[in-house]
Amino acid sequence: MISLDGEYDQNISSYPIIPSDFFGDMESSWKGRVKRIHLEEAFAEVEKAAEALSLAVTEDFLPIVSRIKATIAPFGGPRGEILYAREHEAVWFKGKRFAPTVWAGTPGEEQIKQLRPAVDSKGKKVGEEWFTTPKVEDALARYHEAGAKVKARVLELLRELSAELQIKINVLVFASMVLVIAKALFAHDIKPLDRVDGMIINGLSPYWFDVAQGSAVQNTVDMRSLFLLTGPNGGGKSSLLRSICAAALLGICGFMVPAESAMIPHFDSIMLHMKSYDSPADGKSSFQMKYAEEQKQQRGHVLPVVL
Fold it and tell me: Boundaries of each DNA mismatch repair proteins mutS family domain copy (predicted)?
């Protein structure tokens, strides 16, 4: 019901005369959610309504816009264009000083006479520069009605599908886990230890930050031996070290790594040592606690990270 592979007939409606944002806002919430075959008539009705709206705008607004563009006037002359009033979910004509001083039957005059001030859902005048026509308003109402019907039907189908799948939720969760594990294993390219020269991580990001919102900085790490990380307070040293350790641990466990790509060798152990505190109950100072923790490090192929 919801697999859309191979379906190319659910693109957002598009007409040159209508601002693209209008159809995107109106249809993106329901198009592509279910297969069209389940709601063929409802989809077709939306397409017919969108075409009728485009025709109404072309017949009532375009001659006025063409008339304004053909008018050669100094600064302060007539202005007019077809715009999307997002707040009112409408496509209207916005202009000023476009009415002729003398009516001479020239192109566009008949359409200008049909214009009336645009009003909101409460019948209040939107502004002095927004205009519409009865034909455009009827086409808008038809389009919104068709869109509301198909959106309601899409939600109804999804609710029915959700109810049917509820009894199989355990199977779905298990299948999802298997899929994630299989994807992680497939993404891993296991090489002999003697062919792995150090640890290389590209596009490493702190997994607890959202990169899309710009709250994290991606880093590239090429660690082939001991390296010293320096920087000012609050510069991200601790976050980078924790990210490196998390990537190394996840990688050797066979899980996904929070990076674009990574080459991680096998480590006998991973040590992340942050700031130590004293232990008055044990009679140990902070230096003694730090020294005692460092004594626990084991020999072997170790990734020591100390801050």
Answer: 228-294
How many C-beta atoms surround the C-beta of residue 291 within 10 A? 12
Q: Is the torsion defined by CA of 111, 116, 120, 121 positive or negative?
A: negative
Beta bridge partners of 204: 219
Please provide the distance, in angstroms rounded to a whole number, between the alpha carbons at the two ends of the chain: 53
More confident of the two residues 238 and 202: 202
Q: Please give the model's pTM, rounded to 2 decimal places.
A: 0.59
- Angstrom CA distances, 247 to 41, 200, 223, 260, 272, stand at 51, 11, 13, 11, 12
pLDDT in tens, 80-113: 999 999 999 999 999 988 888 778 888 889 999 9
CB atoms within 10 A of CB 248: 24
